[in-house]
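Duplicate of #3305? Posting structure anyway:
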């Protein structure tokens, strides 16, 4: 980069208002908190199981499932509310609700109260996601939004990197309750900063009259689909209960789509799918999320079961990828601000496919740190080019008065794709008979992920619109 270009870049960044950076700081803090919650809950789960020995395994699983379903089911309502009643207001209320839920979870005397507290956390989380993204997008001019999204998205990679060691320290020193209670001071700090620094914004195009009938259709429909996905392995993929759950969910979603297409004030405006970048961005998100998490979620279990490594040693070989993603994400955002998000996301698909190819060539039943670190580092490049940039690509042409609603729709797709990835991984891996069998099923997962990464590359390298500067 020439000195002139560097000076122009520095001058351009200096022109961004201080309030924009403060908004980025608050929303990034909350994004880090919500992201790290996923990691530390997984680490604390064995202690939670030990604390409630009389609870059935199916009941304990709802500690995680209730949060995931509640979050996904309420996003559309939260997105509409953020656009209508104010993104700052909904964001701050969500923070308070999440803090209360975290406090209740940390003080829960039993499993039932813990599950209820997790549902309360999900309500707060659902309110934070679309409103936080809308606040962030509204705070930056279009020419700097990808950079802001890159920094915001880097918090997810950083959370994945520091989550295992931080969770281990919290659980080891203070017990499982600490993974919930740690959210309380963070939420309070973010809420105080939000009251002072965030600027209110809303959509004047929306009215108080929303299609109330479609709310239960959308909420229960998404919740039923997610329930079927996460419980498929337990119930059996051909069981009557699972089939009924999917049929019920699809029927409600169909009714939701029909009403949203006809009602003058729908909960979710289907016209958003006429925006090519929004539609293709969501499809690309499904490709990446399923590919990445179907690989990432079962990998630690493979390392521990096949190689006999402990949690700490496993964490050391897994951490470099997410850490690299956190470093690269803001740089990818700066590139995307100049050239669009599509090229960088397509490059992410190339690196993702390369990482899976390296696993297929290198990883064996014999322990070797480099056979995890090298592909994982390459995948970290893929994640740095994809996670946040997919958000930017999807939202690039969405008009500002639809930021909350579109963000809610994007996050709903993300949550369903994440649940699908985990279900696919669990279904393929199953219960391996031994190290060789475990490696064989992991190879199948790596091939599936490789194919999806290739699909991501083709979608953003060929089909995705080149210029996505003008709001629809």
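Output from current build:
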């Amino acid at each position: 980069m020439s000195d002139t270009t560097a000076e122009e870049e520095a001058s351009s960044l200096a022109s961004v208002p201080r309030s924009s950076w403060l908004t980025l700081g608050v929303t990034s803090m909350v994004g880090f908190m919500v992201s790290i919650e996923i990691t530390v809950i997984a680490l604390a789960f064995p202690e939670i199981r030990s604390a409630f020995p009389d609870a059935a395994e199916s009941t304990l699983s709802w500690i995680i499932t209730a949060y995931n379903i509640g979050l996904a089911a309420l996003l559309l309502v939260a997105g509409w509310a953020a656009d209508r009643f104010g993104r700052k207001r909904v964001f701050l209320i969500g923070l308070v609700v999440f803090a209360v839920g975290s406090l209740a979870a940390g003080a829960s005397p039993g499993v039932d109260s813990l599950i209820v507290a997790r549902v309360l956390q999900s309500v707060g989380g659902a309110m934070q996601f679309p409103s936080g993204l809308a606040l962030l997008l509204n705070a930056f001019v279009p020419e700097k939004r990808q950079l802001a999204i890159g920094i915001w998205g880097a918090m997810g990679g950083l959370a994945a990197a520091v989550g295992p060691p931080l969770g281990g320290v919290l659980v080891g020193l203070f017990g499982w309750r600490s993974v919930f209670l740690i959210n309380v001071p963070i939420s309070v700090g973010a809420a105080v900063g939000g009251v002072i620094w965030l600027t209110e914004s809303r959509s004047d195009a929306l009215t108080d009259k929303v299609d109330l009938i479609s709310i239960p259709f959308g909420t229960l429909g998404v919740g039923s689909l997610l329930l079927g996905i996460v419980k498929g392995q337990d119930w059996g993929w051909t069981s009557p209960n699972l089939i009924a759950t999917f049929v019920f969910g699809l029927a409600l979603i169909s009714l939701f789509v029909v009403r949203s297409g006809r009602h003058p004030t729908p909960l979710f405006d289907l016209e958003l799918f006429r925006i090519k970048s929004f539609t293709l961005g969501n499809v690309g998100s499904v490709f990446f999320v399923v590919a990445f998490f179907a690989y990432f979620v079962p990998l630690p279990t493979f390392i521990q079961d096949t190689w006999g490594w402990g949690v700490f040693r496993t964490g050391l070989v897994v951490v470099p990828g997410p850490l690299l993603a956190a470093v690269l994400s803001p740089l990818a955002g700066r590139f995307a601000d100049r050239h669009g998000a599509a090229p960088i996301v397509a490059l992410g698909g190339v690196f993702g496919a390369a990482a899976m190819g390296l696993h297929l060539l290198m990883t064996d039943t014999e322990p070797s740190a480099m056979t995890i670190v090298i592909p994982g580092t390459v995948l970290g490049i893929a994640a740095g080019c994809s996670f946040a940039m997919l958000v930017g690509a999807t939202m690039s042409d969405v008009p500002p008065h639809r930021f909350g609603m579109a963000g809610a729709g994007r996050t709903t797709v993300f949550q369903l794709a994440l649940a699908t990835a985990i279900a696919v991984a669990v279904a393929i891996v199953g219960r391996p008979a031994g190290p060789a069998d475990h490696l064989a099923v992991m190879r199948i997962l790596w091939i599936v992920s490789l194919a999806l990464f290739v699909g991501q590359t083709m979608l953003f390298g060929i089909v995705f619109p080149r210029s996505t500067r003008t709001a629809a």
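Confirmed duplicate; merging threads. The radius of gyration is 22 Å. The chain has a mean pLDDT of 86.
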